[in-house]
Specification:
single chain; 344 residues; Rossmann fold; 10 strands; 36% helix; binds 4'-deoxy-4'-aminopyridoxal-5'-phosphate; Cys_Synth/Cystath_Beta-Synth
């Protein structure tokens, strides 16, 4: 890429066109070739830059917003950061309702990027007036000239990935991709990317990654909402306690569920083996690949693309903190390496 010698008009010119990086070491025991779409290379360090820019520009094109207006969103952090970044450059006010499950680092970062942040309780139902959905809806009604991005229920979330992530992966693999593995939160990434890729080659297999404690996998299999599937879990940005319309279940072939603990260890392993410092859900996606390999899901000529959604720096107080890992019970008592660095 010619990026090195280029001068850009502003930071938004760097959104998208992220690299596809071959995974060489962590994948050694597996059959097939593995490539990571490393979304941390976006200027806001996550895949959410794509949807923030795309959705705001669509609203501009349709004359729905003009500079000085307010953009509102519910977010676990990444989307908020991206919206805040786009708002700074384009001259919008940014209001974010976030879950109390989000790390303090993320919340501070959003404030640094000029956003007004409302922290809402994580473990209340979506229709509770204290939930971040309801808070965002209320603010949208109260503030004149505001736009509610509503990423879980916005078709443009899917369209953003259909327009960029899908074509990029197709080009980067020269059409040789056989499997796509991606986390599903809003479902925008996997749905938009899969839709584009399957239009090019309907044989590409699309595997979604879901968390234990989320309803998504069960819904995909039964088309029924099963409340019994829902319980608290640690991974941020993956899985859900409701069914987002930004997920197109028909373009996804299967879902794999992963645990908080194994995903955290796998994220740390990616850093140590590939030198890629990525977030918790990247660990989850890689963990899904490990499980799929145990089931013999890939042949030796498979070309598997896995999406790594964000950067590891956002998880310093969580999965990359030995203390936090120990508090979760994620280190067993004989892990000397871990215990050495913990202050008691
Ligand atoms: N990983 C992280 C860290 C995220 O913030 C998100 C978005 N919530 C996802 C994965 C899932 O992406 P999507 O919402 O497009 O399904």
């Amino acid at each position: 890429m010619g990026r090195k010698n280029q001068v850009f008009d502003n930071v938004l010119d760097l959104v998208g066109n992220t690299p596809l990086i071959r995974l060489n070491t962590i994948t050694k025991p597996f059959k097939g070739n593995y490539y990571a779409k490393v979304e941390a290379f976006n200027p806001g360090h996550s895949s959410k830059d794509r949807i923030a820019l795309y959705i705001i520009e669509q609203a501009e094109k349709q004359g729905i917003i003009k500079p000085g207006d307010t953009i509102i969103e519910t977010t676990s952090g990444n989307t908020g950061f991206s919206i805040a970044m786009v708002s700074i450059i384009k001259g919008y006010n940014c209001i974010l309702a976030v879950s109390s499950k989000s790390s303090l680092d993320k919340i501070d970062m959003l404030k640094t990027m000029g956003a007004k942040v409302y922290v809402c309780p994580a473990h209340v139902s979506a229709d509770d007036p204290r939930s971040y959905y309801e808070v965002a809806k209320r603010l949208h009604q109260e503030i004149k000239g505001s736009v509610y991005i509503n990423q879980y229920f916005n078709q443009l979330n899917i369209d953003a990935h259909y327009a960029s992530t899908g074509p990029e992966i197709w080009k980067q693999t020269e059409g040789k991709i056989t499997h796509l593995v991606a986390c599903s939160g809003t479902g925008g990434t996997i749905s938009g990317t899969a839709k584009y890729l399957k239009e090019q080659n309907p044989n590409i297999k699309v595997i979604g990654v879901d968390a234990y404690g989320s309803v998504i996998k069960k819904y995909h299999e039964t088309r029924e909402f099963d409340e019994k599937e829902i319980y608290p879990y640690r991974i941020e940005g993956l899985g859900k306690n409701l069914i987002p319309t930004a997920t197109e279940f028909d373009v996804i072939d299967e879902f794999v569920k992963v645990t908080d603990e194994e995903s955290a260890h796998t994220a740390r392993e990616i850093a140590k083996t590939e030198g890629l410092f990525v977030g918790y859900t990247s660990g989850a996606a890689m963990q899904a690949i490990k499980q799929l390999n145990e089931e013999g899901a890939f042949e030796k000529d498979a070309n598997v693309v896995v999406v790594f959604p964000d950067h590891g720096s956002r998880y310093m107080s969580k999965i990359y903190s030995d203390k936090w890992m120990n508090e979760q019970g994620f280190f067993d008592s004989i892990n000397e390496e871990a215990l050495e660095s913990i202050e008691f």
